[in-house]
């Protein structure tokens, strides 16, 4: 659990008030206001890393994991790749892949020709400010609903350790209390919000360790 402890325990009462502001305002339309409140109340790097939900500047290139005709609800996600001192890492690679709206990486009848290479996938290279951005569709859980819906990410940057992440979406009914309480170190639960244009969005910043 990456988000709640930072809000409640690390930054203390002021941070909690800021979190309540976010909760009260709700929605991405007010996130900039909420973010200002969050940014101003804590100088703890971890808390800021976990809580900053503001989107990248409009000029940050978006990498598509699927075509615009892919079935499913639109999803956009983005974030910054940072070094161990929270400096933006330029030219880091971010590979992202997920299941499609049927919960499959590859259609059953196409496995022989496509292998296990996920059909919905892409790689982004971070810009000079460490930003990556993907557009895709909201993945569905595996058909046997054994796991919450998720996106996998592999992050690499020169002279830094490889990072692997699995991203779950807060509010997914498949995230049981038991699963939430026993998350492995590679899995994070991100808050998913819906933009005015109907697109689901989340931000996930990732700090790499030096090699
Ligand atoms: Fe998976």
Tag the structure with descriptive keywords.
single chain; 211 residues; alpha/beta; Protocatechuate 3,4-Dioxygenase, subunit A; 6-stranded mixed β-sheet; 5-stranded mixed β-sheet; 23% helix; globular; disordered N terminus; binds fe (ii) ion
Summarize the structure.
By secondary structure, this protein is α/β, with parallel strands linked by helices. The chain has helices at 4-10, 12-25, 31-41, 45-51, 111-114, 177-181, and strands spanning 63-64, 74-82, 93-98, 120-125, 131-137, 150-156, 163-169, 187-190, 193-194, 200-203, 206-207.
Secondary structure blueprint with pairings:
Elements: H1 4-10, H2 12-25, H3 31-41, H4 45-51, E1 63-64, E2 74-82, E3 93-98, H5 111-114, E4 120-125, E5 131-137, E6 150-156, E7 163-169, H6 177-181, E8 187-190, E9 193-194, E10 200-203, E11 206-207
Parallel strand pairs: 1-5, 2-10, 2-11, 7-8
Antiparallel strand pairs: 2-5, 3-4, 3-6, 6-7, 9-10
Helix pairs in contact: 1-2, 2-3
The chain binds fe (ii) ion.
